[in-house]
Amino acid sequence: MPRLPALRSKLALALGVIGLAAAALVPSTAVADDAPAIPAPETGDYLGSTTIDEADPGQASESAGMQAISLKNFQPGNLISDKLMYTSGTMTAAQIQAFLDNKVPSCQKGYTCLKDFTQKTATKAPNSYCSGTYTGSAKESAASIISKSAKACGISEKVLLVILQKEQGLVTHTWPSDFRYDKAMGFACPDNAACDPQFLGFQNQVYMAAKQLRRYSIDPTFNWYPVGKESRVKYHPNSACGTTGVTIQNKATAALYYYTPYVPNKAALAAGYGTGDSCSSYGNRNFVNYYTDWFGGSGSGGASNTPNPNDAKPVARFWSSAFDNAHFYTLNAAEADKIKRTDDNWAYEGTGFRAWSAANGSCGAGTIPVYRFWSSKFESHFYTTNQAEMKKVRETDRNWSYEGAAFCTARTSSSSTTPVYRFWSDKFGKHFYTSNSAEADNIKRTDKNWSYEGIAFYSAK
What we know:
Blueprint: H1 59-64, H2 82-85, H3 93-103, E1 118-119, E2 140-141, H4 142-153, H5 157-168, H6 178-182, H7 202-218, E3 230-234, E4 243-247, H8 251-259, H9 266-270, H10 283-295, E5 313-320, E6 326-330, H11 333-342, E7 347-355, E8 367-375, E9 380-384, H12 387-396, E10 401-410, E11 417-425, E12 430-434, H13 437-446, E13 451-460
Antiparallel strand pairs: 1-2, 3-4, 5-6, 5-7, 8-9, 8-10, 11-12, 11-13
């Protein structure tokens, strides 16, 4: 039986060049006489990334399976707090690996995705900006490289993951080429110039980006975005697009502007993850988008990471032997009651997990929709939070009928959520979901009919 083009399918979503639409240019505003001179990115003075098309807005978000958050409260002067930027130990190497595994359960044949990437790494001694020692290894995973770089330089592991995504889309890319690893963080890759070859390579990129973010907060030569004062920040490398005044509220936000010295304009913010106009830039907008969607609020508006678990409702779970080991899940109490009373094909198994209601197909703060499909051919339902997966099934697979947003689940994990695990069976042609970790572990160990596909979403405890 052909399997659903789900998380294992080859989603060939190219991270291509952005097509910029024509738009009216924004007039530039004069810089205050006492403002420090801003070095030109083209000369390499930034050392960070000055490319405007990090991770190709639009397609990168689709490959990540994300829902565009509201950016109406975007705070250009507070992109992220100092605590969130300059605190390491936010994720262990094992947690980073699990995060990467969940983002790309299956990589396209012939390519090495970030979750499987390894390389020989060099030892890096403590220095003025990174007080810890990075001990090299003969064969080290991307997760370990991220973890060691974060600890050595005192930078959040979450921040490094977000920059990897906004620069080259590496976290979610299913067919990354070698060049994406060579310039993974966009470090020392200025506009209109080649990348500095001494900094190419995944370890170099991750470590040097972490070091540079720390340097921005310490080195007094980086003074043209002073904390507490208004600075003029460009909308775009094209000077005709103008600047806007931004009062930088903390060192972490200043560091992001030193790394990518552009602020999103109204068109970029209105586009969510998509493309704005010819004066739009996306790096710092995408940083806030990805950080918020993956890890909760960065300090610049966006959805909360902690929906109230008390607002969650039970999702009823049914099983059917008549439909060859099919399971069905619904938050709709009327639907569940009708099945219990009138349909002998289904046996009620209790509460499968707890989730939040979708109001007219929309989910509240801190939650995302779980999309539901039905297949008469496979005699089963399918559920996913992955927008790219949902769109591909809806648009290309006639075996499945789209039934809308079934319910809402937490955008990210937290102390008030629990993971829901996803399995697939070639034998039964079915998916199975459970929040019971003991049940999931037992299936992994003892039932060869089911293949574990990772964490599907996060339910309320």
